[in-house]
Design a protein that fits this description.
Layout: H1 10-21, H2 41-53, H3 60-65, H4 69-76
Pathway: Siderophore biosynthesis
InterPro entries: ACP-like_sf, PP-bd_ACP
Organism: Longimycelium tulufanense
Length: about 80
């Protein structure tokens, strides 16, 4: 997990989501609907809490409205 917003990368984003879903990161494409991939509200809140702990401001609603890695990368400023 990154120490700050500036160090959040595509791979760390995808890795965090894959880990919480107990899937290999290579199984998640950037436009996959993460809710359909098994991400539920409790797991999504866990991600929000992890990222907030590392200084990344994001809300559950923001993630839930657009549940794809591509959308989250844009929202979180991942390069």
């Amino acid at each position: 997990m990154p120490d700050s917003h500036d160090s959040l990368t595509w791979e760390s984003l995808r890795g965090a989501v894959a880990e919480i879903l107990n899937q290999p990161s290579t199984s998640l494409a950037e436009d996959d609907n993460l809710l359909e991939a098994g991400l539920d509200s409790i797991r999504m809140m866990s991600l929000v809490e992890q990222w907030r702990h590392h200084g990344i401001e994001v809300t559950f609603v923001e993630l839930a409205e657009h549940p794809t890695l591509r959308s989250w990368a844009t929202l979180l400023g991942v390069s």
